[in-house]
């Protein structure tokens, strides 16, 4: 693990340590009880065997009964330990998912410019899922790997100090070997995760671009590249398994050495008397030695648990790194110290004052010192050639990016002082390609306002002219559309977006070339629906087509010397 990783994990662990360690405490407490019961079991078992061998007909029923009771208690402890660990894992993953999702939503679409969507999905689903091991196994194991062996060592020391010394020496060898394997395991695990994310991103890209691949006759090439990436993942996974096997083998070797040494150093552990009637009988310290031998696996179990959980720590490092990459991003105005646009307003006047924007310090300004205002019932058309900055200005109005200089005001209030959710509450946005989620048409429409009643829904359907194609859908409003569902044409999908905007009923409407991919006839129908939607609202629209531009009441010519003109 690199220095940066270590620092990241430490910072992340510190941040998580409060609730996560608190959640791990019951697991640790039950684990302590479990170890003590294990010691008791070992004593009962050793005593039963010792007594039977030393004294014929010895009374061992009490010891056997104690062993049975302890075994039942141990089973209960194991059950509770697993249960508590699983709960701690679930709670921690829930907490993390919420916090990462908040960050993702807080940054908004700007995040997709610097991170592949597959990476974000992998973090939210896979990386956080594997953190289960970190919370359920690594945290308790790292809190107890010295404590449990110490319990065992004290118990063995009391009955057989020589065996305790052997255990201590062999036990001390384990952390050395684990440190060697651990470094390799962390690195291998990190590389494996990167290979997996790369493969996921590649798959997602290729599935999205399946038509281009087929039409470019590139299927063989792509299949080869995908199989190469899958093979890379396989090799990295095998490397992890090899390291895990070696690390476990190192503990087994230390355990076997401890057993052999205890037996060898005990001298006459069992006497074979071949002179009198040939018989085998135990040495006087037989029970104590047997007790120490039974406790050897118990002594090494926490080391094994820690070694197994080391990979979970490596996963946490990867997740911490990915979360850092997301959380370091510039957030939308969404923090609670910003004031809300309360109460909800019915009309919005938009004003830009000396507004300038450039994508970064090295890039030229997209526009500079822009001044304009749009009142309710006005439609401002953003005009200009491709690359003039129409979409950039709409992103600024949406609050997805922040001005390099100047301000945007809604009702004379700088939107930099508004919370992201308050900006969103007061506007509806329709882009070039509406997103249809996998679900029914009804769910897709109600996405904008889940609590809308049937009458409101019907009004939106009529106003957006969705009823024109509704009768052609197999199950009407309950037809499943979106990914894997019934396909809608570009114009029909755009009508769904207009229907959503009707339902949202926001005072400000932002339209970013909503008819960009439509034929003139379909465009005319959409424009009609948009004209109805625009009534009484403040509208800003970006368009290339003359028919769309004709909707405007004034136009803003974008370019470095921008100017506002009334529409003819
Ligand atoms: N994420 C980005 N990073 C850096 N530059 C960008 C980014 N997005 C857009 N640009 C640049 O900003 C400028 C304005 O782009 P924008 O998409 O706003 O233009 P547009 O007028 O909407 O174009 P079109 O009409 O083709 O959609 C362009 O020079 C573009 O290359």
Automatic annotation (TrEMBL):
Keywords: ATP-binding, Membrane, Nucleotide-binding, Transmembrane, Transmembrane helix. It is a multi-pass membrane protein. Residues 27-270 form the ABC transmembrane type-1 domain. This is Thiol reductant ABC exporter subunit CydD. Its main location: membrane. InterPro entries: AAA+_ATPase, ABC1_TM_dom, ABC1_TM_sf, ABC_transporter-like_ATP-bd, ABC_transporter-like_CS, ABC_transptr_CydD, P-loop_NTPase, Type_1_exporter. Pfam families: ABC_membrane, ABC_tran. Residues 350-568 form the ABC transporter domain. It comes from the Bacteria. The chain crosses the membrane at residues 23-48, 60-80, 138-159, 165-188, 243-264. It comes from Asaia spathodeae. It is found in: Cell membrane.
């Amino acid at each position: 693990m690199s220095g940066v990783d270590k620092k990241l994990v430490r910072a992340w662990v510190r941040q998580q340590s409060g609730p996560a360690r608190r959640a791990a405490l019951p697991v640790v407490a039950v684990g302590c009880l479990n170890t003590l019961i294990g010691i008791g079991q070992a004593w009962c078992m050793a005593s039963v065997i010792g007594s039977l061998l030393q004294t014929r007909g010895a009374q061992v029923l009490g010891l056997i009964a104690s062993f049975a009771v302890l075994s039942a208690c141990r089973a209960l402890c194991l059950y509770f330990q697993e249960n508590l660990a699983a709960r701690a894992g679930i709670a921690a993953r829930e907490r993390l998912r919420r916090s990462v999702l908040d960050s993702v939503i807080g940054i908004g679409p700007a995040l997709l410019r610097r991170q592949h969507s597959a990476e974000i999905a992998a973090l939210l689903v896979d990386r956080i899922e594997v953190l289960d091991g970190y919370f359920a196994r690594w945290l308790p194991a790292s809190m107890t790997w010295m404590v449990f062996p110490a319990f065992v060592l004290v118990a063995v020391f009391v009955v057989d100090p020589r065996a305790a010394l052997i255990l201590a020496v062999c036990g001390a060898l384990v952390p050395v070997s684990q440190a060697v394997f651990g470094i390799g395991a962390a690195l291998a695990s990190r590389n494996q995760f990167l290979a997996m994310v790369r493969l996921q991103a590649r798959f997602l890209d290729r599935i999205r671009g399946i038509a281009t691949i087929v039409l470019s006759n590139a299927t063989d090439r792509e299949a080869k590249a995908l199989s190469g990436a899958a093979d890379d993942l396989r090799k990295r996974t095998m490397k992890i398994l090899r390291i895990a096997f070696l690390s476990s083998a190192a503990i087994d070797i230390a355990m076997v050495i401890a057993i052999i040494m205890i037996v060898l150093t005990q001298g006459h552990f069992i006497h074979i008397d071949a002179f009198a009637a040939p018989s085998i009988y135990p040495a006087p310290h037989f029970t104590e030695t047997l007790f120490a031998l039974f406790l050897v696996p118990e002594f090494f179990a926490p080391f094994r648990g820690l070694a197994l959980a080391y990979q979970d720590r490596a996963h946490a490092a990867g997740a911490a790194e990915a979360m850092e990459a997301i959380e370091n991003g510039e957030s939308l105005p969404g923090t609670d110290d910003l004031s809300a646009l309360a109460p909800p307003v019915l009309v919005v006047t938009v004003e830009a004052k000396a507004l300038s924007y450039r994508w970064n310090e090295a890039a030229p300004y997209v526009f500079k010192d822009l001044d304009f205002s749009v009142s309710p019932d006005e439609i401002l058309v953003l005009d200009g050639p491709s690359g003039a900055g129409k979409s950039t200005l709409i992103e600024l109005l949406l609050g997805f990016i922040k001005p390099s200089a100047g301000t945007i005001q809604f009702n004379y209030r700088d939107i930099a002082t508004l919370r992201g959710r308050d900006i969103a509450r007061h506007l509806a946005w329709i882009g070039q390609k509406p997103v249809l989620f996998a679900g029914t048409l009804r769910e897709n429409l109600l996405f904008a306002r889940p609590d809308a009643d049937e009458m409101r829904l019907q009004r939106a359907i009529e106003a957006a002219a969705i009823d024109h194609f509704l009768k052609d859908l197999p199950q009407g409003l309950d037809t499943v559309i979106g990914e894997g569902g019934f396909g809608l044409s570009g114009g029909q999908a755009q009508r769904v977006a207009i229907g959503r905007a009707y339902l949202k009923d926001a005072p400000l409407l932002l339209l970013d070339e909503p008819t960009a991919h439509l034929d003139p006839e379909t465009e005319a129908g959409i424009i009609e629906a948009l004209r109805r939607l625009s009534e009484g609202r403040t509208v800003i629209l970006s368009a290339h087509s003359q028919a769309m531009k004709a909707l405007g009441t004034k136009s803003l010519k974008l370019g470095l010397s921008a100017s506002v003109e009334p529409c003819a």
